[in-house]
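4.2 Preliminary Data

To establish feasibility before requesting continued support, the project team ran the inverse folding procedure on a target of 340 residues. The structure was first converted into the token representation described in Section 3, and no sequence information of any kind was made available to the design step. The complete token record follows.
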């Protein structure tokens, strides 16, 4: 409204004589001087600033009519408007990271719900095998937060001779009738492959030595065997292993970290499988372990294996079809593929 009044006043003053304009200017300046003595800092709006910047461009004698503010203030306003103009002119388009597709977010949450024990590395490995180009931090951002953190991994201590090294160990599992079953596993270190496993209620040195023969019936005998100091590995077992040409590496006392791969696979078996079922008998335990090892070898991803399974899985292109879930281990875990 003030600009409209100024414009009308300008048009009216064009047709007036110079004497009347001089007297009017004198009275207006006197009133402005009175206002300045009453209120030192008048409130100047944005449109007022724009008007004075515009007048400074087209009126050479604009300094003489300026009483509310100093001429330096108008110059500063002009410089600020110049910065704002070029900031708007050179603004960057498309800033920030690209948006994550809704399909990927839904798939991440789906994997979290269907596999509560999985962490961001496991889910990221599955997405990589399905040709989804996302980072592990993005997967961690959109995961459903559970009460328990992802399981930790062991630090690898064997960097050489992995294809020629195996680890063995026992673990126990109670049954529904409170019997205790002993499970023996033989694990190759290079591809985390469980070469052999068996279950018994009464383990002996002779029985354990026989398991080594069944694990390596051919000439593919490893060079090194890592084990703990359990008394089950008696003289009969040691003699049988020595005759097979295997060198034993015995861990220190109370040092399970010296046999990390075997301990880690036992932890995976218990956390991902056996803690979710009630074992009825020896036959039932063997069947459950067979189902889990089928999943472990052909579907489960490993960080140390370039986020792939011991038996490498194919990386499926995104154009092949939609993602489907295949239940594994009775539905405790799932394998994700693209349906043609």
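Position-by-position output of the design step:
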């Amino acid at each position: 409204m003030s600009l409209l009044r100024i414009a009308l006043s300008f048009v009216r003053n064009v047709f007036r004589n110079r004497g009347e304009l001089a007297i009017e200017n004198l009275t207006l300046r006197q009133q402005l001087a009175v206002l300045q003595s009453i209120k030192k800092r008048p409130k100047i709006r944005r449109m007022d600033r724009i008007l004075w910047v515009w007048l400074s461009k087209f009126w050479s004698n604009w300094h003489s009519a300026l009483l509310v503010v100093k001429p330096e203030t108008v110059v500063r306003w002009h410089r600020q408007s110049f910065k704002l103009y070029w900031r708007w002119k050179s603004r960057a388009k498309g800033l920030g990271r690209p948006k994550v597709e809704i399909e990927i977010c839904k798939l991440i949450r789906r994997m979290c719900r269907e596999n509560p024990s999985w962490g961001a590395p496991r889910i990221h490995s599955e997405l990589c095998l399905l040709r989804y180009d996302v980072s592990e931090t993005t997967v961690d951002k959109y995961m459903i937060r559970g009460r328990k953190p992802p399981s930790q991994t062991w630090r690898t201590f064997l960097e050489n001779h992995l294809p020629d090294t195996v680890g063995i160990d026992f673990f126990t599992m109670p049954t529904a009738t409170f019997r205790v079953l002993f499970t023996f596993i033989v694990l190759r270190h290079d591809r985390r492959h469980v070469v052999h496993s068996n279950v018994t209620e009464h383990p002996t040195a002779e029985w354990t030595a026989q398991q080594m023969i069944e694990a390596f019936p051919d000439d593919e005998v490893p060079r090194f065997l890592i084990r703990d100091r359990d008394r089950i590995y008696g003289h009969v077992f040691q003699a049988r292993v020595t005759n097979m040409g295997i060198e034993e590496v015995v861990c220190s006392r109370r040092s399970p970290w010296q046999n990390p791969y075997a301990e880690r696979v036992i932890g995976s078996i218990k956390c991902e499988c056996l803690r979710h079922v009630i074992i009825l008998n020896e036959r039932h335990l063997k069947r459950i372990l067979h189902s889990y090892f089928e999943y472990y070898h052909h579907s489960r991803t490993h960080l140390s294996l370039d986020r792939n399974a011991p038996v490498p899985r194919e990386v499926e292109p995104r154009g092949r079809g939609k993602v489907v879930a295949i239940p594994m281990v009775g539905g405790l875990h799932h394998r994700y593929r693209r349906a043609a």
